[in-house]
Design goal:
Layout (H helix, E strand, L loop, with lengths): L4 E2 L3 E10 L2 E8 L4 E8 L8 H19 L9 E7 L2 E7 L4 E2 H7 L5 H19 L13 E3 L5 E3 L4 H4 L22 H4 L6 H17 L9 H10 L14 H10 L11 H8 L17 H4 L46 H16 L3 H19 L4 H16 L3 H14 L4 H13 L3 H16 L6 H17 L3 H19 L4 H19 L1
Antiparallel strand pairs: 1-2, 2-3, 3-4, 4-6, 5-6, 7-8, 8-9
Protein name: non-specific serine/threonine protein kinase
GO molecular function: ATP binding; protein serine/threonine kinase activity
Enzyme class: transferase
Length: 520
Amino acid sequence: MNGRVIGGRYELSTVIGQGGMGQVWTGYDTRLDRRVAVKLLSPAALTGPRTAADELRRRFVRECRVTAHVDHPGLVTVHDAGSDGDDLYLVMQYVDGADLADHLAEHDPYPWEWAVCVAAQLCAVLAAVHAVPIVHRDLKPRNVMVRPDGTMTVLDLGVASVLDSDTTRLTHTGEPIGSPAYMAPEQAMGGAVGPRTDLYALGVLLHELLSGNVPFAGSTALGVLHRHLYEPPLPLRQVRPEVPAALEALVLRLLAKDPADRPSGAHEVYEALLPLLPARGTPSGPMDPTRPFLRPHAPWPAAPRARPPAPPVPPLPPVPVVPPQAAPDPRISVQAPVSRGADVAGAVEEVKRLLGEGALTQAVDMLGGILPAAAAEHGEGSPVVRILRKQYASTLLDDGQYRRALPELRRLAADDPGNASFRHDIALCLEQLGETAEALAGFRAVLPAFEQGPAQDPVRAFDVRRRTAQLLIATGRHEEGHAELNRLLLDAERLYGPYHPLAAELRRSLEHQRQLGRES
């Protein structure tokens, strides 16, 4: 189905998720050139009497509209919904980051402060959802994304309820809707579910973050559900003594068998977490879930500025074509790189077309698909691969995908250590990703190349000096930063005159810093 266009504008690319209800694809909104996620309901879900299928379609569209009206930054934005032939589709925001299960695996043991921040953000989302009212019914780490700025995004809101007209019933297979490991006792028994059902799942999730394991595991789904119904959870401080007693008590309340014994709502859980949240300060690194509380409303990554003009990337090269046995598909999937020279050639032509139309997002993903095939065909060190890699890195930067651009630029710089442009763009990526110390060192190291020698570029040198000054201020070295801004202002006035836009911008920046100094 790769290359299929849904609704006349959403081009499907790669399957990223699959379940009993259908598939989730990465796709492209060809009208707005943005990456999206497209959920297609399985045709099997629509089988049955025609009246029942028609009613399911009406309820699906109605549910999508309700979900779209839940306004909260911790929920995926719904862009569109409808039908395409016999298929129902839901077009949503594509969320960059790692799901919470992978984030936990990468940071085991998970700091309890991080777990508190995750839970607090999820409480804010659940409060908005329950006010609709909607019950998520499948809150678990795989349905929570940790974005690069540390914020949580909850996925799959309301989709399960669409396929069951009565939330108190079991599915046609006799199993409750949801994931057994995170399922509240009343949900496991097919009873009425409500907001406190989601709070139980939040308790399971918190227990898993703090202990590394769900509280109730087993070899079969029925065995897990039995433990949910009859076994008490293990108190967390028996396995993590450093966990605050108040946090352990809250998790035990969330995991109460009787919904009436759990907190009254997500607001109450948030209030219980509030004293445990970290004080304002500096986040420990990228994708730190404490960041929204350590620096509330602070921009992250920093708002990108226009990149100074860079030397043009050579045009994409012609690629030798091996006669194919069958006509190649010019649409190259991001996760399914091609393996024949003819496919590479076709993809190169498609990339040229996309770049010409300004479709950067699609061009980026197609270049990522071309590179492995081109390297296998022509060799990693070939001119063809090197030019493709330069184009890939440049397009990633232009599209603001700094995390993906960084390893490509580092590879290019390792092959050509004398190229100042690569080192400059590496520092730019580090700046945008919040790695201020590394970015500062990188800009300082590359500055001499732009001030003298073959790569001399006064415009870029001024930009590097300005970024250096701002990074110095951001790292607390205010005097050094202000001194550099003053030197830069004097040089700008000497070279361009006092009324040049650069000089005016520097004066505004200095005045802003002085005002901040007076207020602090």
